Amino acid sequence: MSIKVEPLKIADVLLVTPQRFRDDRGFFSQTYSAAQFKAAGIDADFVQDNHSLSRQAGTVRGLHFQAPPYAQAKLVRVLRGAIVDVAVDIRKTSPTYGKWVKAELSAENGVQIFVPRGFLHGFATLQPDTEIAYKVDNPYSREADGAVLWNDSALAIDWGIDAASAILSEKDASAPAFGSFSSPF
Ligand SMILES: Cc1cn([C@H]2C[C@H](O)[C@@H](COP(=O)(O)OP(=O)(O)O[C@H]3O[C@@H](C)C(=O)[C@@H](O)[C@H]3O)O2)c(=O)[nH]c1=O
Hints:
Blueprint: E1 3-7, E2 14-18, E3 21-23, E4 26-28, H1 34-39, E5 48-54, E6 60-66, E7 74-80, E8 82-89, E9 100-106, E10 112-115, E11 119-125, E12 130-136, E13 145-147, H2 170-173
Antiparallel strand pairs: 1-2, 2-10, 3-4, 5-12, 6-11, 6-13, 7-10, 7-12, 8-9, 8-11
Dtdp-4-keto-L-rhamnose binds next to β5, β6 and β11.
């Protein structure tokens, strides 16, 4: 059993692809192994697993963060359908502050993304009935939960969907602009 780990352009954000053992029945895959992630230098003690379903293609969830002491690293994968997953660097001392990376994750490709603490995170669904599962290394806190506007022109994220028909929660649709956001990291 092995995992392939590839840094994205912001090198702390990683694509992790676990091996799939295929046979006539389908496949088997270890989607998370503490020992292997540790050996690969991925440093997170996950404490909560999340699962969400987005009914319509073009649903956007994000851009989200939890402020310290509830900051969360996330390990995201797709169970059904496909997403474009985006991470924005909001570490104030980082040379890539305000820059983003993205990756396509699908049930088919089995690719996972590791998003460290200190990033905004969001995704857009590319297929109907897309389900994702993700691990986080700090519990949910309603008070620490925050958002930045997903399609802010200052961030200029290429989501690869039709922005005019994107489906958002009320909270995400009215999230503050990046320019008026003060990063807690
Ligand atoms: C994220 C979360 C939400 N909730 C509740 C709060 C609310 O009533 C309901 C829906 O919450 P939200 O609208 O924030 O769900 P959602 O928009 O799916 O939020 C998620 O988006 C992605 C992009 C992330 O990165 C996650 O960390 C999380 O922020 O679920 C929990 O109880 N625990 C949790 O961990």
